[in-house]
Amino acid sequence: MDDNNCGCWAVLKRGVCKSSAFRDSANTIPRTSLVYDTATETRYLNASNRELYPPNEAHLSSDNPDPPPSDNKSPCQLLQCTFQELKSATGNFRPDSILGEGGFGYVFKGWIEENGTAPVKPGSGITVAVKSLKPDGLQGHREWVAEVDFLGQLHHPNLVKLIGYCIEDDQRLLVYEFMTRGSLENHLFRRTIPLPWSNRIKIALGAAKGLAFLHGGPEPVIYRDFKTSNILLDSEYNAKLSDFGLAKAGPQGDKTHVSTRVVGTYGYAAPEYVMTGHLTSKSDVYSFGVVLLEILTGRSSMDKKRPSGEQNLVTWAGPYVADKRKLYQLVDPRLELNYSLKGMQKVSQLAHNCLHRDPKSRPTMDEVVKVLTPLQDLNDLAILSYHSRLSQQGRRKKKPEGSQQLSNTQSKSISGSSLNTGKQRCR
């Protein structure tokens, strides 16, 4: 295996190459890609990589499906794996190594050597997640290519790292870094132990930084499928965005939006995008607002098991978000007052702003990051405020015994007095 051997990438992206024997047939054109410097927290261009999409990609009609990305690029910085290597790394794709399943296929847990792609025994080398595309799955070849293109070029602490890929005959596989704690969706909706408030804020901030990075580069990227199942968590609850199959190059120059077919997940997609097919970075901001509500409430964006008026989270939460007196009714009851009062108010207001019907009135993701950042340090837990109020109420009710007896004596004296009975004493 040679990580510098780019293969017949141009041909494979058209979906017509049937053998990895033609790997040396394509020439690549070095362009630029966006890289994130963790030391300085700045974006810069890496001239050794490639452009995301050609400029004319952004001007498609919404009547036509998205075409595959440009044919003159290959993910040379990624490891190119053979199907046999990944088969061995996952123990022949055994059922007990399955990490998850979706419309695309299955994700398996595997192990490869640290400085290569050769399979190793479980527990040694590095742990990876191997995503296998079903030939008849909902995610097709175009989406698979888009994911390799974007994740092969974009590097940021809050984007999942793509390590390598395999494309042989009809096999399409991707190799990612292994995310120890799985998806945010599992922690919010499928775990019996509630996710602590501090972790919720940390995850929201990390995901926001990932989106801000995508939107803020010289070649903006619109994620288009932001949801809890696509937010993966490492051992320290650092959030990383995954699944870039629906990602799209954003508008450039004087263009205000990208016109494209409507795809995504119901309950998360911005209403103007669903209605018109016009895609902007503010479409992602709306989706972030939905996820922020899920983080706050512990409720799913769409839940058919709830009463009809509560099935759509955004619709149900609207009256509560708009009324400060009702905000506390939004909070996940499993938190049992173990959340920041100011943080809850800020998160509620931020979600409200992100979900504004007018896209122009929504904040940018950079602005979202600025709002969320200080919330990590708040210690005004609601439970402390609750106990404080109870204590104050108790002190007001409880009086010294002497004063209570005096009060009773005075009461008796007054009740037996002539003033009280209306009788007048004579000597």
Tell me about this structure.
With 427 residues, the chain is of the alpha+beta class. The protein has 2 domains: 9-177, Phosphorylase Kinase, domain 1 (2-Layer Sandwich); 184-383, Transferase(Phosphotransferase), domain 1, CATH 1.10.510.10. It is built from 13 helices and 14 strands. The chain has helices at 9-12, 83-89, 141-151, 184-189, 197-216, 271-276, 281-297, 313-321, 341-354, 365-372, 382-397, 401-416, 418-421, and strands spanning 33-37, 42-46, 79-80, 98-102, 105-112, 126-133, 162-168, 171-177, 221-222, 231-233, 239-241, 248-249, 258-259, 278-279. A hairpin with a 5-residue loop joins strand 10 and strand 11. Helix 5 (197-216) runs antiparallel to helix 10 and helix 7 (281-297) packs antiparallel against helix 9 (341-354). It is globular and about 75 Å long. Residues 1-75 and 405-427 have low confidence and may be disordered.
Characteristics of this structure?
427 residues, alpha+beta, Phosphorylase Kinase, domain 1, Transferase(Phosphotransferase), domain 1, 2 domains, two-stranded antiparallel sheet, 13 helices, 32% helix, globular, disordered N terminus, disordered C terminus
